[in-house]
Design a protein that fits this description.
about 280 residues, two-stranded antiparallel sheet, 9 helices, Spore Coat Polysaccharide Biosynthesis Protein SpsA, Chain A, alpha/beta, nine-stranded mixed sheet
């Protein structure tokens, strides 16, 4: 009888521990609010939202979209929309952080598609005071086809809200976390379906800002990659070789060539802007 009671108590404790663990995992997702910036993202945003159905609330900062973006957002009841005129990505992100009440933030672009594995991995996170943010790796897609490798680096997308602040970094923006980070094993799919003319307009704006950054930053403070880009001539050809050969894009067929040409064109635009800016400053 005593042995039976001890065994029964052990079973109860085991069941209780399992229930606590499961409730803790569920609570982690409950503590996370996705943050998304939008401007005319109708070609992308619904695919992104379909992978966020677990979220109790999704905060979207919209820069006054004029396409069907707002209609799509309104079709998801957990989406909370705040419209704010665009000045910079960092300003928009910091504005978004002010609207979030949860402990954790999942900051993603409107063309990021969370893998099912990543959702499960986040679900299984047991928060610890030692970790304040998580990096996630990306699988770049061209019209839905995942590539073997890209230039897209891992990003800190999951972090504690009270530890984060965004700052500008050239044409891009970066979140700075006051704390320690870790890296998750699963991936996000980066799959932008907007037309090429939108990409060209954006890249032209980005490269003006990027050229200014490269020229105003002392060479000693630039990364090795940025030092090569500053040379103007080498980078476009090097990036084509890097994408096709080192990243094995040539094995991805037309999608690999498309991506390689796209990146080469972006670097060519930067080289042209660097030359133009240098001549304007000189004259």
């Amino acid at each position: 009888m005593v042995d039976y009671l001890i065994y029964g108590n052990q079973c109860c404790v085991l069941v209780l521990l399992v229930e606590i663990e499961l409730s803790g995992n569920k609570a982690m997702l409950d503590k996370v609010t996705p943050l998304i910036l939008t401007f005319n993202e109708a070609p992308n945003i619904e695919r992104t939202l379909k992978r966020l159905t677990w979220a109790q609330k999704i905060v979207v900062i919209d820069s006054y979209s004029t396409d069907a973006t707002m209609d799509i957002l309104h079709s998801y009841p957990q989406v909370e929309i705040f419209r704010n005129g665009f000045v910079s990505f960092a300003i928009q992100c910091n504005y978004g952080l002010e609207k979030i009440k949860s402990e954790w933030v999942l900051s993603i672009d409107a063309d990021y598609i969370l893998s099912e594995e990543l959702v499960r991995e986040i679900d299984n996170i047991v928060p610890t005071p030692k970790i304040d943010s998580y990096f996630v790796k990306f699988k770049y897609c061209v019209f839905g086809k995942p590539l073997r490798g890209t230039l897209y680096p891992p990003r800190q997308v999951l972090y504690r809200k009270d530890k984060a602040v965004y700052q500008e970094d050239g044409h891009a923006h970066r979140v700075y976390i006051n704390g320690n980070s870790s890296t998750l094993d699963s991936q996000i799919y980066h799959d932008d379906r907007k037309p090429l003319d939108r990409w060209l307009i954006a890249q032209n704006k980005y490269m003006i800002i990027e050229a200014k950054k490269l020229l105003e930053t002392p060479t000693s403070e630039l990364s090795f990659g940025d030092r090569i880009r500053k040379q103007k001539i080498i980078a476009p050809f090097l990036i084509l070789f890097y994408c096709l050969i080192l990243k094995q894009g040539i094995l991805d067929g037309w999608a690999g060539w498309y991506y390689a040409f796209e990146r080469m064109l972006a670097e060519t635009l930067l080289s042209i802007r660097l030359i133009e800016t240098e001549k304007l400053y000189k004259d």
